[in-house]
Amino acid sequence: MKRILIVKANYYNLISNKLAKQSISFLKYKMKISVIEVPGIFEIPITIRKNLNKFDGFIALGCVIKGQTPHFDLICKATFNAIMSLSITYNKPIGNGIITALNSNQAHERCGIKRSSKPNKGLEAAKAVLSILKNGPKKA
Protein backbone atom coordinates (compact mmCIF):
# COMPACT_ATOMS: atom_id res chain seq x y z
CA MET A 1 0.00 0.00 0.00
CA LYS A 2 1.32 3.45 -0.95
CA ARG A 3 2.21 5.89 1.82
CA ILE A 4 0.99 9.50 1.80
CA LEU A 5 2.09 12.30 4.11
CA ILE A 6 -0.30 15.17 4.70
CA VAL A 7 1.50 18.31 5.86
CA LYS A 8 -1.08 20.57 7.47
CA ALA A 9 -0.38 24.21 8.32
CA ASN A 10 -2.37 25.25 11.36
CA TYR A 11 -2.28 29.05 11.11
CA TYR A 12 -5.97 28.92 10.18
CA ASN A 13 -6.68 25.74 12.10
CA LEU A 14 -10.42 25.45 11.42
CA ILE A 15 -9.83 25.76 7.67
CA SER A 16 -6.89 23.33 7.68
CA ASN A 17 -8.89 20.77 9.64
CA LYS A 18 -11.70 20.87 7.05
CA LEU A 19 -9.16 20.39 4.25
CA ALA A 20 -7.51 17.47 6.05
CA LYS A 21 -10.82 15.81 6.85
CA GLN A 22 -11.74 15.66 3.15
CA SER A 23 -8.27 14.45 2.10
CA ILE A 24 -8.21 11.71 4.72
CA SER A 25 -11.79 10.64 4.04
CA PHE A 26 -11.03 10.22 0.34
CA LEU A 27 -7.73 8.35 0.79
CA LYS A 28 -8.22 6.33 3.98
CA TYR A 29 -9.02 3.01 2.29
CA LYS A 30 -6.66 3.52 -0.64
CA MET A 31 -3.44 4.67 1.04
CA LYS A 32 -1.58 4.59 4.33
CA ILE A 33 -1.83 8.16 5.65
CA SER A 34 0.34 10.08 8.11
CA VAL A 35 -0.13 13.70 9.16
CA ILE A 36 2.42 16.26 10.32
CA GLU A 37 1.24 19.64 11.56
CA VAL A 38 3.31 22.79 11.06
CA PRO A 39 2.67 26.41 12.13
CA GLY A 40 2.18 27.92 8.67
CA ILE A 41 2.47 27.20 4.95
CA PHE A 42 6.08 28.44 4.81
CA GLU A 43 7.11 25.36 6.84
CA ILE A 44 5.45 22.88 4.46
CA PRO A 45 8.27 22.50 1.88
CA ILE A 46 11.02 21.76 4.42
CA THR A 47 8.77 19.25 6.16
CA ILE A 48 8.15 17.48 2.85
CA ARG A 49 11.87 17.58 2.02
CA LYS A 50 12.79 15.98 5.36
CA ASN A 51 10.35 13.12 4.65
CA LEU A 52 10.90 12.52 0.92
CA ASN A 53 12.36 9.04 1.33
CA LYS A 54 9.64 7.81 3.68
CA PHE A 55 6.54 8.46 1.52
CA ASP A 56 5.28 7.90 -2.01
CA GLY A 57 3.33 11.16 -2.21
CA PHE A 58 2.45 14.26 -0.26
CA ILE A 59 -0.45 16.62 0.28
CA ALA A 60 0.18 20.22 1.33
CA LEU A 61 -2.75 21.79 3.20
CA GLY A 62 -3.25 25.23 4.67
CA CYS A 63 -4.55 28.70 4.02
CA VAL A 64 -3.22 32.20 3.43
CA ILE A 65 -5.58 35.17 3.47
CA LYS A 66 -4.41 38.40 1.87
CA GLY A 67 -3.80 41.31 4.21
CA GLN A 68 -2.64 44.88 3.70
CA THR A 69 1.04 44.08 3.05
CA PRO A 70 3.00 42.18 0.36
CA HIS A 71 3.59 39.33 2.84
CA PHE A 72 0.81 37.25 1.21
CA ASP A 73 2.45 37.41 -2.23
CA LEU A 74 5.94 36.64 -0.93
CA ILE A 75 4.91 33.68 1.25
CA CYS A 76 2.64 32.17 -1.41
CA LYS A 77 5.16 32.48 -4.23
CA ALA A 78 8.06 31.08 -2.19
CA THR A 79 5.99 28.17 -0.87
CA PHE A 80 4.39 27.24 -4.18
CA ASN A 81 7.72 27.43 -6.04
CA ALA A 82 9.40 25.25 -3.40
CA ILE A 83 6.60 22.66 -3.58
CA MET A 84 6.82 22.50 -7.38
CA SER A 85 10.61 22.27 -7.28
CA LEU A 86 10.51 19.38 -4.79
CA SER A 87 7.96 17.50 -6.85
CA ILE A 88 9.91 17.83 -10.08
CA THR A 89 13.40 17.35 -8.62
CA TYR A 90 12.51 14.24 -6.63
CA ASN A 91 9.80 12.87 -8.95
CA LYS A 92 7.23 12.70 -6.15
CA PRO A 93 3.61 13.84 -6.44
CA ILE A 94 2.68 16.71 -4.14
CA GLY A 95 -0.95 17.73 -4.11
CA ASN A 96 -1.27 21.42 -3.40
CA GLY A 97 -4.32 22.00 -1.25
CA ILE A 98 -3.22 25.38 0.04
CA ILE A 99 -5.99 27.95 -0.19
CA THR A 100 -4.93 31.44 -1.25
CA ALA A 101 -7.85 33.77 -0.61
CA LEU A 102 -8.50 37.48 -0.67
CA ASN A 103 -10.75 37.21 2.39
CA SER A 104 -12.04 34.71 4.93
CA ASN A 105 -15.32 34.27 3.04
CA GLN A 106 -13.42 32.89 0.00
CA ALA A 107 -11.36 30.62 2.26
CA HIS A 108 -14.49 29.28 3.95
CA GLU A 109 -16.04 28.50 0.54
CA ARG A 110 -12.95 26.62 -0.63
CA CYS A 111 -12.75 24.39 2.45
CA GLY A 112 -16.43 23.67 2.95
CA ILE A 113 -17.14 25.72 6.08
CA LYS A 114 -19.52 27.80 3.99
CA ARG A 115 -21.83 26.04 1.54
CA SER A 116 -20.57 26.69 -1.97
CA SER A 117 -20.25 25.20 -5.42
CA LYS A 118 -16.47 25.50 -5.03
CA PRO A 119 -14.74 22.15 -4.45
CA ASN A 120 -12.82 21.45 -1.25
CA LYS A 121 -9.12 22.09 -2.01
CA GLY A 122 -8.05 19.22 0.27
CA LEU A 123 -10.17 16.78 -1.69
CA GLU A 124 -8.80 18.13 -4.99
CA ALA A 125 -5.21 17.70 -3.76
CA ALA A 126 -5.89 14.13 -2.61
CA LYS A 127 -7.46 13.22 -5.95
CA ALA A 128 -4.49 14.68 -7.82
CA VAL A 129 -1.93 12.67 -5.84
CA LEU A 130 -3.93 9.46 -6.16
CA SER A 131 -4.26 10.01 -9.91
CA ILE A 132 -0.51 10.45 -10.35
CA LEU A 133 0.33 7.42 -8.22
CA LYS A 134 -2.18 5.18 -10.02
CA ASN A 135 -1.41 6.36 -13.54
CA GLY A 136 2.21 5.34 -13.95
CA PRO A 137 3.88 4.90 -17.31
CA LYS A 138 1.97 2.89 -19.87
CA LYS A 139 3.72 0.14 -21.84
CA ALA A 140 3.88 0.73 -25.56
Structural description of this entry:
With 140 residues, this protein is of the alpha/beta class. Helix content is 46%, strand content 22%. The protein has one domain: Rossmann fold (3-Layer(aba) Sandwich). The protein has a 4-stranded parallel sheet with strand order 2-1-3-4, with helices on both faces. Helix 1 links the parallel strand 1 and strand 2. Helix 1 packs parallel to helix 5 and helix 2 packs parallel to helix 3. The model has no long low-confidence stretch (mean pLDDT 94).
How would you summarize this macromolecular structure in one to three sentences?
The protein has 140 residues and is an alpha/beta fold. The protein has 5 helices and 4 strands.
Q: Indicate the overall shape.
A: globular
Total beta strand runs = 4
What's the CATH topology name?
Answer: Rossmann fold
Helical content band = 40-55%
Task: Please report the first level of CATH classification, the CATH class.
Answer: Alpha Beta
Largest sheet: 4 strands, parallel
CATH superfamily: Lumazine/riboflavin synthase
Taking all Cα atoms into account, the compactness measure Rg is: 15 Å
* Count of discrete structural domains: 1
Oligomer: single chain
Indicate the CATH architecture. Answer: 3-Layer(aba) Sandwich
